[in-house]
Amino acid sequence: MTFGAGMEPARIGLVGYGFGGRWFHAPLLQAAGECDLVGVVTSSSERRALVEHDHPGLRTFDSLEALHAAGAEAVAISTPASTHSALTDQALGLGFAVVCDKPFALDAGAARRSVELATRLGLPLAPYQNRRWDSDFLTVRALADEGTLGELTRFESRFERFAPDPGPPASGGGTLRDFGSHLVDQALVLLGPVASVHAEWRLRDSGLDDDVFVALTHANGARSHLSGSWSQGAPGPRFRVTGTTGSYVVGGVDGQEDALLAGKSPATLGTAWGAEPADRWGRVFRGDDGEVVPTLPGAWNTFYPAFAAAVRGLGPVPVDPRDAVATATVLDAARRSATDGGVVSLPPG
To answer: Counting beta carbons within 10 angstroms of the beta carbon of residue 6, is it exposed (0 to 12), middle (13 to 18) or buried (19 or more)?
Structure first.
């Protein structure tokens, strides 16, 4: 897809160069012709050295103010979860358009305040929900749109890994906020608003939650069962999506993360970016052996061109920031349920 053909590239700075900034943002920003990566804000000498190693000649800055003085007009924030809201609001106050990684905020109140600030200032603000463009989730959405499964009744979705030591990183704010931000966002995109939430978790010695299970009842009556874990030795299917006429099952995980970690990008792979091998395709079952369904190509490289076009006033942001408020509201309810027990009801709308 082409966004803003012929437009001047948006001058974007990256804030943070940890795992997310290094692997999920910098390569995609540099691969997008619609974006001009101005530099990276980091106070760490070790990470400045990594920037120079990975992107020779790319500038580094000590502060948002220094990045702004260098001519950047937008920022992508990929720092520990506890800093997201303060940095988002600071960046907006400096006049930057902002992308903020997940979790967008630690709670719905903070998410709402950032959205209201961006609205008052007339600045683009987008949560980095890149997994809306996972290959398998794009396939699920296509099957739903085509009516292949009939009316959807249950959405089972998992991010499960086996990394019990050290487990969930502190920078993510716990498994519920980290994996849960993607799991809940996808459930809301597919099935709409949530009426009630039940959640369970295990608190690790670090104080961070893990082995999370969240059950959502959507306003339309469909249900989502969402699981996230860093200590699951036998991960279940990535998706099992059930409707009135069949179910779709796909295992494994989208391959775009592994491609980036291997040093590949949309710039190096071209049209092969996001393609999944046939042995990883899912199947539609109707009580039989199932019919293989080719997995659509993943498209994380859609996000930044769309955001750059929004910075130029040529289209909407790729993810509405109000969606981050909706996701945070569900995650807040899940925290209450996991802590206190029982089901938490959410008001309509």
So the answer is: exposed
Q: Cα–Cα distance between 1 and 4 in angstroms, integer?
A: 10
Instruction: Tell me phi and psi for residue 273, to 5 degrees.
Output: -60, 135
Q: Where in the chain is the domain with CATH 3.40.50.720?
A: 10-130+303-320
Q: Which residue has the tokens 């990975």?
A: 54
Q: Phi/psi at 140 (nearest 5 deg)?
A: -60, -45
Class of domain 132-298+330-345: alpha beta
The confidence band for 3, taking pLDDT boundaries of 50, 70 and 90, is: low
Q: What whole-number distance in Å separates Cα of residue 84 and Cα of residue 125?
A: 13
What CA–CA distance (Å, rounded) separates 12 from 308?
9
- Residues 6 or more apart whose CB falls under 8 angstroms from that of 56 comprise none
Q: What is the pLDDT of residues 299-331, one digit of tens each?
A: 999 999 999 999 999 999 999 999 999 999 999
Domain with CATH 3.30.360.10 in the chain: 132-298+330-345
Q: How does pLDDT run across 76-124, given as a tens digit for each residue?
A: 999 999 999 999 999 999 999 999 999 999 999 999 999 999 999 999 9
Say if residue 2's pLDDT is above 80. Answer: no
Q: Torsion angle of alpha carbons 233, 236, 239, 241, nearest 10°?
A: -160
DSSP states of 292-311 as a string?
Answer: EEPPPPP-GGGHHHHHHHHH
Q: How far apart are CA 97 and CA 72, in angstroms?
A: 10
pLDDT, tens only, 211-221:
999 999 999 99
pTM of the entire predicted model: 0.96
Q: Which CATH architecture has domain 10-130+303-320?
A: 3-Layer(aba) Sandwich (3.40)
Q: DSSP class of residue 57?
A: T
